[in-house]
Amino acid sequence: MNPLSLPFLPLVRPEIDEATIAGVADVLRSGWITTGPQNQAFEAALSSFCGGRPVRTFNSGTATLEIGLRIAGVGPGDEVITTPATWVATSHVILEAGATPVFADIDPITRNIDLDLLEKAITPRTKALMPVFLAGAPVDMDRLYAIAKAHHLRVIEDAAQAFGATWHGKRIGAIGDLVSFSFHPNKNVTSIEGGALVLNNEDEAKLAQKYRLLGVTRSGHDGMDCDLQGGKFNLTDVAARVGLGQLPHLDRFTQQRRKLARAYFDGFEGGAAVKLGVGLPMRDFEHTNWHLFQITLPLERLSISRGDFMEQLKQRGIGSGVHYPPVHLFKLYRALGFKEGMFPHAERFGASTVTLPLFTQMTEEDVARVCRAVDEICTLFEIWQTCGRDVPSSDSPRRMARA
Question: Which of 20, 129, 245, 251 is the most buried (most CB within 10 A)?
Answer without folding.
Answer: 129
